[in-house]
Design a protein that fits this description.
alpha/beta, about 50% helix, globular
Length: about 400
Amino acid sequence: MRDLKNLQYFEDLLRLSNNRLVVQAKNQGRIFAAYMCENTPEPLLNLGNCFGVRLTAPNTGSTDIATYYMSSFMCEAARALLERSIEGGYNYADCLIAPDGCTMINRCAENIELLGTIKGNERFFVEHHETPLKADDNGVDLLVLQCKNHILTPLHEKYGIDISDTAIRHSVGIHNQVCELITAIGQYRKELLPRITGYEFAVITMATYVCPKDMLIDKLQETLDELATREPDSKPYRARLLVTGSELDDIEFIRIIEECGALVCADRFCFGSTPGREVIELTDDEDALTQVCRHYVYKCQCPRQMNMEKVYGRKENINRLALEYKADGIIYNQIKFCDPWAYERAMGTAMLRDDFGFPVLSLERPYNSHSSLGQIRTRIQAFIESIEIKKIQEEHNND
């Protein structure tokens, strides 16, 4: 396939946390609200002249200093974020919103606050907010209260951000525009000969998390229009794979999978398209804040939510996606030392294999995939070969 016109543009946005669109927005006098977890409602960080960006640490090397403060048994993503913060990589941020999605993120945010690693703005503040453990009405009420106290009120008091119902609805409208475009682009992965690769889709989706969303809409629309006439490669992929699991902002992991001859046809991970890029439906008979919080509570696929409907529902959701996108197998990834996803990966691997009949590769990976490139590539290649062998055996048995 010919290269997508804007792919290099999207890739460049991922190389630095302080990318060109963040710099442009800051130069326009906009307020940068950094956040650290998918459990933080994004539209509430994009009100008025404020824009939200989820923190990443591209090209992470050593995390020795962060390990000193957090220990070597903490999640590598949390340590990478702290290390980058200590290096001064987030000094352009005007505030940091951190949920208690997991202990690791809590420790990272607390160290950033206590060490005073983000400098440059005397009005800078850190807020910690609770997130529900169950998807029910009480959970919605909790999240509404927490968002009022730890996101909306501080933004309004510190920076004069408009936090009205009208402002929230406007922000949700822009959020939904991005979600609709990402969903439409991702639909092309369903084709037998898809006209977009999993790597390309991951790059485009990832860019929407690390930039002011309103500044990406034109490029997203242009890419969608381009895909309508793009000619796919005639050679089929060795296997169609769904990638699920924990925090994944390392798009090189997706590239490694596809270099082995597979197509990443669907995704369910933090920084992915589901549920993070699903439209938030709003009605006029209820305030927008409550509806946004309800969406995040009930659409959440994070193992933090422990009621049994959610525990089993997460596996059923992956099964639904795998069937919808015609996946031949599933890669269940978990970033090293991530406790919530370690338990979820063990349970999910067994259930998706035994109850739903999918071949599953259960994989623990480092934050930066290139630090274990050979091992990751070998395991993925073996998994793809096992799927191919299974297909041959099934065809033989049918004959």
